[in-house]
Amino acid sequence: MPYIRDLENCIQFGTPVLLENVEESLDAILDPVLQKATFKQGTLTMVRLGDSTIEWSKDFKQLA
C-alpha cells in the first residue's frame, strides 16, 4: 500500500489527497479515515491508521 504514507502526511498536515481508480472494495486500512474514527490523546485528536497512530489535523477534510 504505497499510498498510506502519503495519506498519513495529508491527515497530519491538513493537505488534500485524492485516491483515484479505486476498486469496488476499499482496503480495510481506510475504514478509520472514512468513518472519522478519531479519539483524543491529551489535547490532540488522533486516528489509528494501520499500525500507526497519527494526529488528525483540524484542517484535514474528507469528502465521501
Primary descriptors:
single chain; about 60 residues; alpha+beta; Rossmann fold; 3-stranded antiparallel sheet; 2 helices; about 20% helix; globular
N-to-C series of helices and strands = HHEEE
- Apparent shape: globular
CATH class: Alpha Beta
| Helix segment tally | 2
CATH superfamily: P-loop containing nucleotide triphosphate hydrolases
Biggest sheet architecture: 3 strands, antiparallel
CATH architecture: 3-Layer(aba) Sandwich
| Count of DSSP strands | 3
From the helix content, strand content and strand pairing, which structural class follows? alpha+beta
Quick take:
The chain has 64 residues and is of the alpha+beta class. It has one domain: Rossmann fold (3-Layer(aba) Sandwich), CATH 3.40.50.300.
Q: What is the fold's blueprint, element by element?
A:
Layout lengths: L3 H10 L17 H4 L3 E4 L2 E6 L2 E4 L9
Antiparallel strand pairs: 1-2, 2-3
In words, what does this structure look like?
There is one protein chain. It contains two helices and three strands; from the N terminus they run ααβββ. With 64 residues, it is α+β, with helices and mostly antiparallel strands. The protein has one domain: 3-Layer(aba) Sandwich (Rossmann fold), CATH 3.40.50.300. Strands 1-2-3 form a three-stranded antiparallel beta sheet, covered by helices on one side. A hairpin with a 2-residue loop joins strand 2 and strand 3 (52-55). The longest helix is centred in the N-terminal third of the chain and has 10 residues, at 4-13. The mean pLDDT is 89.
